[in-house]
Fold each of these.
Amino acid sequence: MTTTTHRRRIEVLADEPLIPVIIRLAAEAGIIHYTLLPTLGGAGAHGRWRDDQLSGATAKVMFLAVTGPEHADAFIDRLAPLLESHHLMLMSSDVEVVRSRKFD
Amino acid sequence: MTTTTHRRRIEVLADEPLIPVIIRLAAEAGIIHYTLLPTLGGAGAHGRWRDDQLSGATAKVMFLAVTGPEHADAFIDRLAPLLESHHLMLMSSDVEVVRSRKFD
Amino acid sequence: MTTTTHRRRIEVLADEPLIPVIIRLAAEAGIIHYTLLPTLGGAGAHGRWRDDQLSGATAKVMFLAVTGPEHADAFIDRLAPLLESHHLMLMSSDVEVVRSRKFD
Amino acid sequence: MALDALLQPVVLFFLLGALAAFARSDLAIPEAVAKGISLYLMMSIGLRGGGEVAETGFTHDMLLAGGAGLALSFLLPLPAFWLLRTAGKLDRTNAAAVAAHYGSVSVVTFATGSEILRHAGMAPAGFMVAVLAVMETPAIITGLLLARAQGKDSLAPRGGLLHETFLNGSVILLLGSFLIGLVAGKGGMAPIAPVFDVPFRGMLCIFLLDMGLIAARRLMDRRALTVRTAALALLLPLLNGTLGVVLGVELGLDAGSSAALGILAGSASYIAVPAVMRLALPAADPGLYLGMSLAVTFPFNLTIGIGYYGWVAAHVWPLIRG
Amino acid sequence: MALDALLQPVVLFFLLGALAAFARSDLAIPEAVAKGISLYLMMSIGLRGGGEVAETGFTHDMLLAGGAGLALSFLLPLPAFWLLRTAGKLDRTNAAAVAAHYGSVSVVTFATGSEILRHAGMAPAGFMVAVLAVMETPAIITGLLLARAQGKDSLAPRGGLLHETFLNGSVILLLGSFLIGLVAGKGGMAPIAPVFDVPFRGMLCIFLLDMGLIAARRLMDRRALTVRTAALALLLPLLNGTLGVVLGVELGLDAGSSAALGILAGSASYIAVPAVMRLALPAADPGLYLGMSLAVTFPFNLTIGIGYYGWVAAHVWPLIRG
Amino acid sequence: MALDALLQPVVLFFLLGALAAFARSDLAIPEAVAKGISLYLMMSIGLRGGGEVAETGFTHDMLLAGGAGLALSFLLPLPAFWLLRTAGKLDRTNAAAVAAHYGSVSVVTFATGSEILRHAGMAPAGFMVAVLAVMETPAIITGLLLARAQGKDSLAPRGGLLHETFLNGSVILLLGSFLIGLVAGKGGMAPIAPVFDVPFRGMLCIFLLDMGLIAARRLMDRRALTVRTAALALLLPLLNGTLGVVLGVELGLDAGSSAALGILAGSASYIAVPAVMRLALPAADPGLYLGMSLAVTFPFNLTIGIGYYGWVAAHVWPLIRG
Ligand SMILES: Nc1ncnc2c1ncn2[C@@H]1O[C@H](COP(=O)(O)O)[C@@H](O)[C@H]1O
Ligand SMILES: Nc1ncnc2c1ncn2[C@@H]1O[C@H](COP(=O)(O)O)[C@@H](O)[C@H]1O
Ligand SMILES: Nc1ncnc2c1ncn2[C@@H]1O[C@H](COP(=O)(O)O)[C@@H](O)[C@H]1O
Ligand code: NA
Ligand code: NA
Ligand code: NA
């Protein structure tokens, strides 16, 4: 049987113009591998939205990174103060991966 | 270190025309914040599908909500009887969030 | 309260032209129900990418399947040797589902 | 007319799409583009119809055709329902859902049919677009009554369903564009004709390529279709279409408009009705109603039905009447 | 001119979209298509403007209009900021973000206005496209200075912001297309006119249908809008627009170009500026600035503003001056 | 011809896209729209080629050019493979994958080249579209043989690969449209020309803007490209293109068609071949083959190659032969 290793899956939902900032903060926390996923719409404390690409200012993108606990914590620490002001949503959960070295 | 809190991540895959119904049921269970994600295709007991937007009747959307255990259970109870008849897929898993108050 | 059962959630990120291969390998491992999700871009050991659909050769798709532990292990065993050569990312995590029979 | 019609690029592109899908090619039109073209076709059909009615004014024929369309859409689901229950062996809910599709209309079948009729010198009157718009929704109401949808099965409140039905995007767009065409008249249409008139036929080619791909892929996935339901998907357009043509001729419409009424009666919806049915009758199988309307009836009408309705309107029924 | 303008298909499609959204119809244009059309409109506007300037050459009027546009874009945010702070009761950050939107311009308002002016025999000069391009970004700089954005609030480095501003996709595309039109001239434009010139008005119809949907949905979601801010979203275009027209006439521009300068001054950005503000002033509420510019000011300009600016340019101000 | 060609809007839009990407602007064409235009271009090229052949009938020249194209596509990967292995220092798999790209063709290079040649009074014959279609796939077979792809490396069954190759969406669409153009003839083409003929050049502008963005972004990400492979990405089109032109002239084709054969031989695939290679040779690096074909060879051909092949066909080789 293939051995799998425990890692953290961090997901951050952010407005499209902020994604480069998220990528930079992740890199500063040592996370350089990531995947971006599209969204269609939603609702939160700041109201409803739909992905109208017209200005792109309120279209949201999901940033996904699988990483080890230290990097994950460093990233969350960096993001925490921005969550409220930048209307972000952050989720952290557990995953198993193969080739653990790739996800440190 | 930033404190994170345990919450439930509920995901429901449903045909696009049914999404307003899912949103209503979630609201009735106390879940008013959610995010909608697009899909491309899939296969299940009711056959294969691809996202042809032509009629939209068989294009599917993923509804995602992070919430506390009571709301989650209430939502699942409401959805359970519909899963089979409405061709839904429901998943529930654990996540950690910052700012726990936002995800009650 | 609705009873939920423990299952495995397997996600595989792969280049679009390889998706039929992933579906075939999953079927060989007994997994015939799945959902495909779109992506926008990302970065990994093999560089950055964006979903330019021009050739489709480097656009990536997320394959998602919820299944029981045996099928999950069989699938991971089949995929493991390909992860590096085919630039795949595999994640496995825990979910709860209703109607356990559907997710064996 | 028949073979000539079959060899026109619009139909050939449909066949190309179908062949590519049967051969399991990966050819695909991005869905956003296909959806965009489908909205374009509705705007264009509406505007041109409205522009023509602005020219001719409201006529007696228009009233007659509108009344006939309304009646057909309300009533055609009844015999269809009976056939689907008896010959098709469908349960009440599925039979009602399918019947609603056959009472309603297919915008693209109408568009292709109009082009083919025009090419054969039998252009339908501009007001037939209004008839098209009128026929989209009544069948849904009949279908829901047949299914007794008010039962506890459905999650959607009664008001919500009527709302869904009459404010369905395609219905709004078609009617709205028709009204804009009516207000704008020939003069207002001229500067937008390079988008909404001239390229219509070419855009239809691209759309039909996609329809060929979708219809054939549905047919290959034909889990939900039985021999019985597939046969009914060929019989229903023939019956409904013939009825439409005969009614048109009897009401004194010109041959082109009678053929168009036949096309409308004979065609089955695959845009407005499925979206409402998925919500109103979730227990009905979308594989079944989309399989029948999109994968069988649509190709049948495109390749054979349109030519047949035109032939009946121009030759057969006038002959029978003497 | 006013009612006639209102009854043109471009405006009617905007109203159709708004009505559909208010009635909660599910009508929607795929976002990729809407974005594609918006890029098309910018390419087309740029190319046509550049092509015209290639004909007429650089003139004194062009320099004057460019200077006026530059000054307006830099300065209009100042009184707007003051009004938003006092009458609007907004905090510094939100007032600065909104003020930047009103100093900048709306490409589609300009495009629709040009078509309506052309239709009324008051076509603005080709170089007004260059003025449009010039006016997009300076207001952003003023807005950021007003917000003292260099504070620790923002994550984006200073250089990054100017970069974002001047290399914003829409700015690049408009300016680049203008330059290509200039290089290509009438000769080079001829073979691409069937795409970039002839269908312009029709494409605008499709885009305005989408704008109607988006604007009305924003208005219904008007969580962020108060009576005060909504009133300012009507007042600001009137003030800025009148100023623009008067400046144009005083500088000796023809009536059409003066009206166009009014349209530019009176319009508010909803493409380039929001994207930069979301990054530069994340604490400002996008619901507020998009609500004001897109859901109130845009429809106001489309239905009333354009006609009013044209009327002032052609009749009122010339009369006042004697 | 060279400078004049460079200053045409089609090429200028490519440069605009490239500049925007190099300046790290966020300008982007929605992928669904770009893909839609790419499908449009193939339909249009196919239809127009087929329509022309329907006029001229099958000629001796057509047969010769088809045979030459077939031979070139099968054989050009051989010297390319050798150069990539020796001068490029690539391993067998990567060298084979890249070689297949250079034996196959780029539809958009051909389309742009045809427009530029037409503009210079050297329009290639209609049947060159058939040659284009014929040249897309043979190189894939040679490439797979060179890689000994039948090894255990690949997951795809042998039959699946041939299937993938010949039923690749772009191959089907090009060939299918060519056949439809052939069946429809000039008469059938007329009503769809407003979509498939007239706007072609303008659509190409939009597509090349996107190509500029994509090519430049790939070049900036040039992780996989070395100086050696980049140099080969300039050398291979020159060698292959010259060979194609000379072969064309020697076979007695007119100068325009000879230049077109050169363009086909000199261009490298970035649509059909990468999709097959990703499946057939997953160990080959897509960053390498797309980097070479899309980020180096494509811009080279667009700006220099096309002009050079035309010059050799019209002046150099005829002179050498005397
Ligand atoms: N509990 C939640 N579950 C799922 N998505 C959420 C949740 N809370 C916020 N979101 C998403 O994050 C966006 C921003 O949240 P907010 O800042 O609360 O408006 C919302 O529009 C939703 O798309
Ligand atoms: N085990 C599963 N894993 C992932 N997706 C599933 C699974 N079961 C069902 N789905 C998705 O849910 C849709 C509806 O399921 P069904 O009602 O079984 O046809 C399928 O078409 C899939 O997209
Ligand atoms: N740790 C990670 N977290 C999220 N996505 C990843 C991670 N590693 C790889 N990926 C995704 O998988 C793709 C292929 O990975 P690689 O083979 O490392 O280039 C990347 O481009 C990312 O989109
Ligand atoms: Na019907
Ligand atoms: Na302004
Ligand atoms: Na080649």
Amino acid sequence: MNVTLQSAKMIGAGLATIGLTGVGAGVGIVFGSLVIAYSRNPSLKNELFGYTILGFALTEAIALFALMMAFLILFT
Amino acid sequence: MNVTLQSAKMIGAGLATIGLTGVGAGVGIVFGSLVIAYSRNPSLKNELFGYTILGFALTEAIALFALMMAFLILFT
Amino acid sequence: MNVTLQSAKMIGAGLATIGLTGVGAGVGIVFGSLVIAYSRNPSLKNELFGYTILGFALTEAIALFALMMAFLILFT
Amino acid sequence: MYNINQTFFSASPLEQFEIIPLIPLELFGLNMSLTNASIFLILSVALSIFWSTLVIYKNKLVPGNWQSVKEIFYDTTLTLVKDNLGKKGYRYFPFIFTLFTIILYCNLIGMVPYSFTVTSHIAFTFGLALAIYIGINIIGFRTHGIKFFTIFLPKGVPLFIVPLVVAIEFVSYVVKVFTISIRLFANMTSGHTLLKIIAGFVWTMISIGGVFVYLQIIPLVLLLALVGLEIGIALLQAYVFTLLTCIYLNDVLEMH
């Protein structure tokens, strides 16, 4: 595979990783609101922590979509 | 297909994936507000969780629009 | 490895590191809400600080994903 | 100087996901060979059956430690189904339980070094998600008949934006298959790649020698933290996959 294509893949993968920006903020927001929610109503053990972890997992998935796209560009 | 076009596609797909940024933050906001809303008024099982999942599904659809665009650029 | 590929790798790694923007904001949000939560209900020693550290660690994981991608581009 | 760095450090961090046919088998033109992926799938099924029967063997009222772990595992799935599907969901509980077990075991076995993570291949996760999706649609048609199409129209939508909402609902309904499978696949793949790259750092640092031999403690500690995170993510993704299956099943059973 010639060099121009190879280098374009590098740049493309780098660009695709920028998609992680929102997810970093998203995870921060989810845990930030967990902390505030917990201080307001410390009936924790029921759903509160469960929803935060669910929210984290679903936000994480968006990061992984972007990373999967980056891998796709880099290696195919 | 000549190389310049191929490499432009790589860069284009990488650029399109940046669209996932907002979705990451959006999903975080949806679940963050679920957590706060639940702590404020834990009558959960009725609408609260339903609306979060609806909100999440619609935000996820935006992520898939961006990814679909990226695939469109990459493979056609 | 010829020059164009080498320079493309540099640019790609640089672009990949932009993914850290969100994580910076996310960590700020988590600790910001810790401060607010602590002021509202200073029962600190229980879960409050623990969740903030958990939130910080998971947001940091996103930063690691972006850095991993940057190193992957830079070195392979 | 014989550079051990080149020989040991594999080609690329993605090399761990290659499928190697162990017993090549040609059956009516189909490649039915036994690969390392199928071996690890069989291994995780055998392990889950073996462990479950072993735990239930001497059923005591006051559970021993292994039995209590199994009970916690059973209980989380039961509450999962009860919360999201309610009484009518109990028919689907065995399916949900096996789904949760198989994904959990595949993920956790993948954490063992030199093993193979079955769920890190899109073929496996997408096949599973598509099968579940088709099953859910069949259930939807059976319970609601032709009225099933009202699923694309949520209640209380003002008339003039109905076509837009239907279009978006349709897209997000179809997209569920892709998001649920890519979520599991991408989490497993990039998690393990991250571990491999950090491990590669430790290795290259040692092979450089000099002061780096002591400096390699930093990536090593990072690697340990990440292994913990990876195990957490393995459990979490199995739970999320099952939870979303329950939610989608509930969407179909209970037309909003």
